[in-house]
Write a structure and sequence with these properties.
Elements (H helix, E strand, L loop, with lengths): L2 E5 L6 E2 L10 E6 L2 E6 L6 E3 L2 E2 L2 E4 L4 E4 L2 E8 L14 H7 L7 E2 L12 E6 L1 H38 L5 H16 L3 E8 L4 E9 L13 H9 L4 E3 L12 H6 L3 E9 L2 E10 L8 H43 L8 H15 L4 H13 L9 H4 L7 H8 L1 H9 L6 H8 L21 H15 L11 H11 L6 H12 L7 H7 L4 H5 L5
Parallel strand pairs: 1-2
Antiparallel strand pairs: 1-3, 3-4, 4-7, 5-6, 5-8, 8-9, 9-11, 10-11, 12-13, 12-16, 14-15, 15-16
Length: 526
């Protein structure tokens, strides 16, 4: 292949006058279709694109630094050069090649014999380098801007489709944090909820990277958060510790945060909280486009949070009405007061133990609360009878599941809840009522409510019998598993009893399990 040497030695094909350059400093060799630069000195003063190199394949536009000289490698199809092979750069040659820029000079390698189809030009025309550099920088900035916009749009689109369909606040927080960590890659990110009465914000969700210092307190600077929320402004600080806005802030100085963005979460004029991201390393500073992206995320968060809270308020109102209705019905039956609440609590515990999906959990929760609503049509003298029922009275009692399903049938969207109400007295062996269903014909929600209902009946006192002990209750469920009760549901109930997750005393069950709609929606940690 072709070979070109560069250095101070007069025998080099390209002679360079520079005290920092060795006699034969480097060579550029044609290897197939490639040009390869090899440093012939100790490698300390040969650089390509600002990197110290020993050997490097050269590409069109690469910048080469030899000692104090900067050259640019250009490979372009053209006619052969007319310069001779002994190009020698001297002050005189430099003077001849000077233009308006006194530092401008050029070098040429006569490559017509070495590479007929192309030539190699090494240029140190600073004005041309600056022009090309400016063009490349502008293009790079344009590409970077496009990438940032694309990334921002992807983040906002992905996040909007998730958060606007999310109705659980806790899930909403985690969805937003995951999106922020992916889009901005901060050392730490927080979502805080504002308490106007206390004029403070508390952390409700946090994510951190492995490189985040372990000794940093859990929350961000309250001074920055408070300023952002109270003044309704998005804040970006490149160096929080030296930012004059926060130089008097003890929390900023104590935390050692380098760069930080804090944007308020506001919806309908209501100050809901803030989103904060932090960097602890001085090597990175958040940029304005990241502030704009986070502000857009905060707007989405405000809408989603307001929607989730409105949904929660409506759900709380709904369950309050349901409980009021159930309580009114249970006043007719002195022996089962609070029964539906207890059955709902136990049914949710069983469903959580079985790790059912959210839809089934909702059906279980509401079906258990309403399972005895059909008793509204049963005479009080039967409900309050202190002794065992006659066969005729028992037939009237047995009508309540179907009657309850009929009452609820006029409410749209309760199909699976109605199924749980109608069939919670069915048995796996087909001996139950009202329809004699068996096995998988009985919906899972109904099977769970059945076990919870039986548990409360077993462990509650009646005029004609005492409540069963824990051991007796466990034996009843083990004996009935697969025949009266669904096998898996019965074993889940037994497991809860053995582990002490529930107790066979109605008052303790009610006290141990928060019966608000919020607790129904939240899975147990076990």
């Amino acid at each position: 292949g072709a070979l070109v040497t560069l250095g101070r030695d007069g025998r080099c094909q390209i002679v360079l006058e520079d005290d920092e350059i060795a006699g034969t400093h480097c060579q550029i060799e044609r290897r197939g279709k490639r040009w390869v630069l090899t440093s012939l000195d100790d490698g300390s003063s040969t650089r390509v694109n600002n990197e110290r190199v020993a050997t490097r394949t050269l590409y069109d536009g690469d910048q080469i630094e030899l000692g104090g000289l900067r050259l640019r490698f250009l490979c372009e199809a053209a006619q052969p050069l007319t310069t001779t092979s002994g190009a020698f750069i001297t002050p005189r040659t430099k003077a001849l090649s000077e233009d308006d820029d006194n530092s401008a000079r050029s070098l040429a390698i006569p490559a017509e014999e070495l590479l007929p189809e192309s030539r190699v030009l090494l240029s140190r025309r600073i004005d041309e380098m600056d022009r090309l550099s400016a063009m490349m920088s502008a293009r790079a900035r344009e590409d970077q801007t496009i990438d940032r916009l694309r990334k921002a749009l992807d983040t906002i689109y992905s996040l909007s489709s998730k958060v606007l369909s999310e109705i659980e606040e806790e899930e909403l927080y985690h969805t937003m944090l995951e999106a922020m960590m992916e889009a901005l890659t901060p050392d730490r990110a927080h979502i805080l909820i504002w308490d106007a009465s206390e004029e403070s914000a508390s952390v409700v969700a946090m994510r951190r990277t492995r490189i985040c210092p372990d000794d940093i307190p859990e929350g961000p600077s309250q001074d920055i958060v408070r300023t952002s929320i109270q003044d309704s402004v998005a804040l970006l600080t490149a160096d929080a510790s030296s930012d004059p806005r926060f130089e008097q802030s003890d929390s900023v100085q104590r935390l050692g945060v380098h760069s930080m963005i804090c944007v308020p979460i506001i919806s309908g004029g209501h100050k809901l909280g803030a989103i904060c991201v932090e960097e602890f390393s001085p090597l990175r500073r958040f940029q304005e486009y990241e502030l704009e992206l986070l502000a857009a995320v905060a707007q989405l968060a405000g809408l989603a949070l307001e929607r989730a809270r409105m949904h929660e308020e409506m759900e709380n109102l709904f369950y309050s009405c349901i409980r009021a209705l159930v309580s009114a019905i249970e006043t007719k039956d002195l022996y089962t007061h609070g029964h539906s609440e207890r059955v709902a609590a136990i049914a949710v515990a069983i469903a959580n133990e079985m790790n059912v999906d959210e839809k089934t959990l909702d059906d279980v929760r509401l079906g258990a609360l309403l399972h005895d609503i059909g008793k509204i049509g049963v005479p009080e003298q039967i409900l309050q009878k202190p002794s065992r029922l006659t066969d005729d009275e028992y037939e009237i009692i047995k009508s309540h599941p179907a009657r309850g399903a009929e009452i609820l049938s006029h409410i749209a969207g309760l199909k699976d809840v109605i199924a749980a109400v109608r069939w919670h007295h069915e048995k796996m062996n087909g001996a139950g009522y009202p329809d004699g269903l068996a096995g998988d014909e009985i919906p899972l929600a109904a099977r769970i409510v059945s076990v919870a209902d039986a548990f409360d009946a077993m462990t509650s006192n009646r005029a004609y019998r005492d409540n069963l002990s824990v051991e007796d209750t466990i034996r009843e469920f083990e004996a009935g598993a697969g025949s009266q009760f669904d096998h898996d549901v019965a074993l889940a109930m037994v497991k809860l009893l053995r582990e002490g997750e529930v107790t066979p005393y109605a008052s303790k069950i009610t006290a141990a399990l928060n019966l608000s709609s919020r607790s129904y929606r939240t899975r147990s940690a076990s």
